[in-house]
Amino acid sequence: MPTIDDIAEIAKVSKSTVSRALKDSYQISEAKKKEIKEIAFKIGYTDKKAAKYQKKRKNKTVGLIAPTFDRCNYYRNIIGSVERNSKKAGYALMVAQTNYCYEDEIYFLKLFSDKQIDGMLVCLYNKDQYKAHYDIIKKMISKPIIYIDTSLDLIDKSMVSIDYSLGVDLAIGYLHQLKHEKIIYLGQYIADQYKLDNFKNSMKKFGISYDDNCIYTGEENLEYGGYVRMKEVLKDHKPPFAMFVSHDTMACGAMKAIFEEGYSIPRDISMVSYGNNRESEYFPVPLTTISHPVEEMGQIAVNLLVNEIENPLGNSKQHILLKPTIIIRDSATECRDQINYDKEDQEEKDQ
Fold first, then answer.
1. Given the DSSP bridges, would you call strands 288-291 and 325-327 parallel, antiparallel or unpaired?
2. What pTM was estimated for this model as a whole?
3. Domains in the chain, ordered, with CATH?
4. Does pLDDT of 129 surpass 80?
């Protein structure tokens, strides 16, 4: 039967290093732990004491850390999927809400790490803090962690995310198909930076010109953020034009601002959004939007976590990228040229 001595000889490290790596000690680097665990798995090593301890200490409970669960349908849907799939796998779920705060995110990571849970699922919010977050994970957290809807440039941790580049391409491509040459971006300043980056790339890809005057971002989010930003847009730009909005909830607020200023959707302003919240088809104008496979994302994330909990030596890290789709409703239509639009607009005013 293979022993720690055999692993140490193959890995060219000491027995104590092997022992610490197999126990997920923070003193051993993630790369070295991965190497040692893979060797142990390949040669069929079984630590009977460790296995007995693992079995004894399992509480059949996992934790989920998300930016919010009471104000955003997207995260609420992720939580619902994780909860359903955790239950199917025989695990209870503890949920923590960070309220979009990086400090709270770190607080709950440490709290969950100290509690008797078997693993964690984490939805990161602020891309600018990914590296700082990951440095803390490597130093302090030894329990299995799966990331949901997080940048794939993280390493040594499994994650399931969405192909946002494809999603934004679908939105801009659809507006381009409708002959729109003026597309304005509306989003949140920090959280949606990756969508803004993809927006710029998609505009270039489809040969649509833009400048900073077509980009509107701010600290406010959800409906209020969309409302405030859209008011700014309408002060600076005269219809007709198209909008790409980073979230359905922001699109809801943007619609309110558009109607208050006496404009209509999609006659004056075409709009495509992101998220496919369940309310989006019931907006005053049913919203054309990008849909995520949220149920599948939650299912895959739970499966990855349960596999890491129950087979700690037999799992390689996986980066899974899911494809979004476009749901076409009534909020976008073919663009009319400015001359005809102005003529029709004047005729309506004269009536």
1. antiparallel
2. 0.77
3. 4-55 (1.10.260), 61-157+294-318 (3.40.50.2300), 164-288+328-350 (3.40.50.2300)
4. no
